[in-house]
Amino acid sequence: MVEKYDTVVIGAGPAGTAAASSLKAQGQKVAIVEEDLWGGTCPNRGCDPKKILYTAVEAKEQADLLAGQGLNTQSSIEWPDLMANKRSYTKQISPGTHESFKK
């Protein structure tokens, strides 16, 4: 069976999904093609996961700077726990993005 579309969007990252949604809202029949992870690099591997990891490092640095100046803490980063937190965030992005487009 051959499907006909007005537009085919290549890549289901933020730009591709925005374009596909906009075109669909304008009444076009749109196909979106993704080879890897739905949602793109930024939310799956780049921007968002980086922010999760960097925020922990930044919080530790701030706590270390204030140690002995009114903040009484021994800070350390538990990398396995931090990576598990990052993975719990990223594991839902691709299936969630794909599911929203199926609807």
Automatic annotation (TrEMBL):
One function term, GO molecular function aspect: flavin adenine dinucleotide binding
Keyword Oxidoreductase included in the entry's annotation: yes
Pfam entry (one): Pyr_redox_2
Enzyme Commission (EC) number: 1.-.-.-
UniProt GO BP: 2-oxoglutarate metabolic process
SUPFAM superfamilies membership: FAD/NAD(P)-binding domain
Top EC class for this record: oxidoreductase
Domain FAD/NAD(P)-binding: 5-78
Parts of the chain that traverse the membrane: none
Keywords in alphabetical order: NAD, Oxidoreductase
The family this protein is said to belong to: Belongs to the class-I pyridine nucleotide-disulfide oxidoreductase family.
PANTHER family documented for this protein: DIHYDROLIPOYL DEHYDROGENASE, DISULFIDE OXIDOREDUCTASE
Protein name according to UniProt: Putative glutathione reductase
Organism for this UniProt entry: Tetragenococcus muriaticus 3MR10-3
